[in-house]
Every structure is written in structure tokens, then in C-alpha cells.
Design goal:
The structure holds two protein chains of two kinds. In chain A, a hairpin with a 3-residue loop joins strand 4 and strand 5. By secondary structure, chain A is mostly beta strands. Chain A is 12% helix and 40% strand. By secondary structure, chain B is mostly helical. The longest helix of chain B is centred in the last third of the chain and has 34 residues. Classes of the chains: A mainly beta, B mainly alpha. The interface between A and B is medium-sized, with 18 and 14 residues.
Chain lengths: 152, 448
């Protein structure tokens, strides 16, 4: 069950501050988009990667595919790399690697970015049926899922 | 500190009454020895508790019965200073724009300098050497990370260091043997050498995929360089200790057969004495004593000593991470101290001392008792070499416990205070038992 495609949009934590007054920026958020109407209803901030994200949604065939949207906050000096995603008709699980950016990348140790991933899943999952979501992250290279289901 | 059983039982009844009918119904079918974990209503003065630790605990500097020359320590200081001089630390955001990397490297710079300052203030050459080699390792981490940033160090450079250090280690180990004249001194010194050998092998265990994944990453390569420096320093220190020790011997006798015999005898003795420990399936430590007593600081200390004693006895001979023959002789003295401390505390409680905490003065008394026990052990002539090899780590426990009380203020529950003060009781009993246990092990060593 490999991810077919993914898209990443990054929002500077400061520019997302309006949203953050109600939800803490490290609050993990996610949604599953199972049809074109829902995809069309999504709104986008003016941030890096938004065109790729829109294209991913437009090119998704919701008859056989779905898009999992997941948002995390991450330290400004790190990048997050999707290692794998796995799913059943009731459950979606993701795992990321946290990688320190190069020394010459200007960033502050205590500043945070908010990053939203759009992950195209090659299965037409029903958002009403998926009732369990989980996500893990570790430093260093990607880890293999414990049950041996290697993804991506 | 000592309270009557009658008063204790009254406390217990009040607690049960307050706990409600459901609790009573559940407990009624169990036993008449109901464990009570402190009195959750009782509060102590946090400010008064924080003042308890104002008086510095006795220091017990780390020592080794080897003449360590100032010139050897200076070699490591020079290496550390050279590493520090090679970097433009502390760094600002123009030198390292990435804030996480900048903070980590500036921290390393601070730690290395602090270790050098601690070395200057150290009371013994052995302690001074420890701080200095720590500075050397930390400064190497800093220097390697900076060189990686400057594209001046690669993972291949570090990979190439591994076989060089392994060769030095193998060459040392092939020439090392358990020589000595006095078997007790020999055991202490060779245990130290064994520890350096095991440490060096451990630091050298870097998997190829770890090198691969760290490629180009300054912090990861810095950490690997630090591990390798640790291994390198361990070989140098082990080699130096052995040379200095052997060079000062009047008569060089192979102590290995004696060490083997002593280890067997001590293992048998520990197994026998461990039979007096409470059965492992007893969950309620108040059952460890033949007396009606609540779960006081003393009872909790008793449980901790029993648990640690059992673990230490079970761990004897159970590891295969490198040479441990002399190390296990020292571990035997510590296991024996735990067993004797357990017995001593058990008798103390059975003889009427609850070792309970009802007010701040009880805590102060427990700490004073621990301080006195450390001072007595420090001056003890019984088993002195083995005592000196162990006492610093026992004595350090009192500092860590002091730290827990240092920042208290307002009201603090007696339950929480009891939890922390257990270590004062453990330290006191261990330090009182250590000279006798050490003397026993010394006797076994000399008579084997």
C-alpha cells in the first residue's frame, strides 16, 4: 500500500497566528477527503506549496483514490519527511522522520512552522468509516513499521 | 523518629475512617496488615525542608590507588584546549545560522570549559583526570561538528579512525594481565582497567548504517567523533593505569587464579545470604518485618534495599560485555553491603524504630544520620581500599536527595517528602554496612 503521491504546504507560524488563537500550533489536525466536492470546498492560505497541493487534489480520482490531509507543527530548524502511511477501511496511520536542517539554514531554535501534508491514498476510503488515526515521528532515518508492512 | 505502634495504629484507623465505606468493605476481606502509604492529609513546611540541605554534605573524592602524574592529566588538558582553540566559539548567528545547531555547539563549548574548571578544583588526581578527559571528549565533539559544517570532516574520516583505535585496544589487552602484589589493591586497579576496556569496546560499536545516515550532518558526526574520542581516551587511560600500577609493584604475582577463587566463594556467600531476603512475591513491604508498622520511609528503604540487593546478587556473573573478573569482586562488596544494610535496617525497625516522617525535624534527623554514616565510613580503616572505591557513589546519593528538597516552598505533603527521604535512610544504612562488607571481601581475597 504505497502512497501514490504527497504534497506539502508550509505555513510560517507567525502568519498562521489568527488560526492559532483558537488552536495551539502543535495541535495535530487531520481530515480525510473522499470526494471531489469536499476537495473543492477546501480553502488555502497564501503559502509555499499551495499550487502543488491544489494540483494533487484536482488530479485525484476519488472513484479509486482518497486524500489524507494531516497537519503538524515542527521546529523551524527541522524538516519532516513522510516515511510511510498505512491504512485499512477503518484506520490511517502515518510515520515521519524529523531531520535537522543544514547549519547554514537561518532559523531559531524555539520557533515553529506548521506543515500540512496531503497524502494521496490509492484506495477510495470512506471518511465515515475511518475512525482511527495515528501518527508517529522520530529523529534520524525512516523506521520500518513494526508489523513489517513497508510503505513508500 | 521512633514512635510507638499504638500511636501508629490510631493514625491508621483515622485514615480508614476517612477513606469511606467502599474502601473499608474492600479491605475487610484482606488482612489485618493494611499498608498505608503515608498520610495524604499531613502537610510539611516546604521552606523549612529546603533549608535542611543548606549544610553541604561531606565530600568523598573519587580515588584510585595508582600514582597519577600531573603530566598525564596535562596531556588531556592540552588536547581539550587544542580542540577548543580550533573553533570560533561561542558561535553567533552569522557563523551558524541554524539556531538548534548553534545552541548545541555553544552548549558543548560551555560544558567543555566547565569540565576544565572542575578539573582545576578537583581534590584528587583521579578526579582531576576524569574531568579533564570529559573536557577532551566534549571538545572533540564540538570541534568535529564545526569541521563538518566547514566541510572539513567527513564520515569516512571518522570511519577510518575505528580500526586504528581497535588496534591500540587489542595491543593493550594482549599485554595486560591481572598482576599485582596486594590482591585487594590489585582488584581495585584491575576493575578500573576492565571498566575502561569495556567502555572502549562499547564506544567503538558504531554500525555502518549509522555512519551512512550521519553523512554530512554536523551534530551526528560530532557525536560519533565524541564516541571515538571516548574509546581512544579509555585505551590511553587503561594503558597508563596498568603501566603505572605494574611499574610500582615490588613483586609481580599473577592474581587471576586468586581472583577466580575469591569470586566463586563470594558468589556462593552472596547466594546464601540472599536467602534471608523476603520472598519476591510479597508485594507489601510492611510484611518484611515481624512487627505492626505502616509503610514509613524506613519500610520503603527496606524494600529498596531488598530489591537492589537481590538484583545485585542475580546480576553477578551474568554479563558478557568484556573483562569483569576484578569488577565482580568490587560488585560483590557492594552486593554484600546491600544485604547487610537490609538486615541492619530490618532489625532497627523490628526493635521499635519506625523510621517515620511526621515533621521536618524527622527529615533533618534522617539526613544527619546519613551524613554521620558517610563521615564514619570515610574514616573507617576496615576494608579501606574497597570502601574508597565505592563510598563516593553511595555518598553522592545524598546530594541528589538534597537537590529534591532544595527548591521546595509552601506546603508539601508528607507522602511526597517520605518518598524522597527514603534515600537518606538507604544511604545511611549502606554507608554503615560498607566498611564491614568491604573488610569481608578483602579477607576473602587475601585468603583465597
Amino acid at each position: 500500500m504505497f502512497t501514490e503521491s504527497e504534497s506539502e504546504t508550509k505555513t510560517d507560524a507567525d502568519s498562521a497566528s489568527d488560526d492559532q488563537t483558537e488552536t495551539p500550533i502543535d495541535d495535530w489536525r487531520h481530515t480525510l477527503v473522499g470526494d471531489a466536492e469536499t476537495a473543492a470546498s477546501l480553502s488555502f492560505a497564501d503559502v509555499d506549496g499551495v499550487e502543488d497541493a491544489k494540483a494533487l487534489l484536482e488530479e485525484t480520482d476519488f472513484e479509486s483514490q482518497s486524500v489524507y490531509v494531516e497537519r503538524h507543527a515542527i521546529g523551524e530548524c527541522y524538516e519532516r519527511q513522510l516515511c510511510w502511511v498505512r491504512w485499512t477501511e477503518n484506520e490511517i496511520e502515518t510515520d515521519y522522520a524529523r531531520i535537522l536542517r543544514d547549519a547554514d539554514v537561518a532559523c531559531e531554535a524555539d520557533a515553529r512552522d506548521v506543515v500540512t501534508y496531503l497524502i494521496r491514498i490509492p484506495a477510495a476510503l470512506d471518511p465515515e468509516q475511518v475512525n482511527s488515526y495515528s501518527s508517529g515521528s522520530g529523529s534520524g532515518p525512516c523506521r520500518t513499521p513494526t508489523d513489517g508492512e513497508v510503505k513508500r | 523518629m521512633t514512635r510507638s505502634s499504638r500511636e501508629r495504629r490510631l493514625d491508621r484507623r483515622r485514615f480508614l475512617a476517612a477513606s469511606g465505606a467502599t474502601g473499608l468493605a474492600l479491605l475487610a476481606g484482606c488482612t489485618d496488615r493494611i499498608p498505608i502509604i503515608g498520610d495524604s492529609r499531613q502537610m510539611l513546611d516546604g521552606d523549612a525542608l529546603s533549608a535542611i540541605a543548606d549544610e553541604e554534605p561531606p565530600t568523598v573524592p573519587e580515588t584510585l590507588p595508582v600514582d597519577i602524574e600531573a603530566s598525564f592529566i596535562e596531556q588531556h588538558r592540552t588536547a581539550a584546549q587544542s580542540n577548543l582553540d580550533a573553533v570560533p566559539a561561542p558561535f553567533d548567528d552569522t557563523e551558524i545560522p541554524n539556531g538548534v545547531i548553534r545552541e548545541r555547539l555553544n552548549d558543548d563549548y560551555g560544558y567543555a570549559r566547565e569540565s576544565l574548571q572542575q578539573a582545576d578544583a578537583a581534590q584528587t588526581p583521579y578526579s582531576r583526570l576524569g574531568h579533564t578527559t570529559h573536557a577532551r571528549v566534549t571538545s572533540r565533539q564540538l570541534q568535529a561538528a564545526w569541521r563538518t559544517i566547514e566541510s572539513d570532516l567527513t564520515r569516512s574520516d571518522l570511519e577510518a579512525e575505528v580500526p586504528q583505535i581497535e588496534d591500540h585496544l587489542d595491543a593493550f589487552v594482549s599485554g595486560w594481565s591481572y598482576v599485582g602484589d596486594d590482591p585487594v589493591r590489585a582488584a581495585v586497579v584491575h576493575a578500573e582497567i576492565e571498566g575502561e576496556i569495556r567502555g572502549s569496546r562499547r564506544w567503538l560499536t558504531i554500525r555502518p548504517e549509522e555512519f551512512s545516515s550521519a553523512s554530512g550532518q554536523s551534530l551526528e558526526l560530532g557525536e560519533m567523533a565524541s564516541d571515538l574520542e571516548h574509546a581512544r581516551v579509555s585505551v590511553a587511560v587503561a594503558s597508563y593505569f596498568f603501566d603505572r600500577f605494574r611499574g610500582g609493584l615490588g613483586e609481580q604475582v599473577d592474581q587471576e587464579p586468586r581472583f577466580e577463587r575469591a569470586r566463586r566463594e563470594l558468589q556462593e556467600r552472596l547466594q546464601r545470604e540472599a536467602e534471608s531476603l523476603p520472598r519476591e512475591d510479597i508485594d507489601d513491604p510492611t510484611e518484611f518485618v515481624d512487627r505492626d508498622v505502616d509503610e514509613t520511609a524506613g519500610i520503603r528503604a527496606l524494600a529498596e534495599l531488598a530489591r537492589d540487593a537481590r538484583r545485585r546478587v542475580d546480576d553477578m556473573g551474568g554479563s558478557d560485555d568484556g573483562p569483569r573478573l576484578a569488577t565482580e569482586l568490587l560488585l560483590a562488596s557492594r552486593a554484600l553491603a546491600h544485604l547487610q544494610a537490609y538486615q541492619s535496617l530490618r532489625e532497627r525497625i523490628e526493635n521499635g524504630d519506625d523510621v517515620a516522617i511526621d515533621d521536618v525535624e524527622d527529615v533533618r534527623a534522617l539526613r544527619s544520620d546519613a551524613v554521620a554514616a558517610i563521615e564514619e565510613a570515610r574514616e573507617a580503616e576496615q576494608g579501606q581500599l574497597l570502601v574508597r572505591a565505592t563510598l563516593p557513589r553511595f555518598a553522592n546519593e545524598i546530594r541528589w536527595t538534597d537537590d529534591r528538597f532544595a527548591d521546595l516552598s509552601g506546603s508539601v505533603s508528607a507522602e511526597s517528602v517520605t518518598f524522597d527521604a527514603v534515600e537518606y535512610v538507604v544511604v545511611a544504612e549502606l554507608c554503615r554496612a560498607l566498611p564491614s562488607a568491604s573488610a569481608d571481601v578483602a579477607t576473602v581475597l587475601r585468603e583465597s
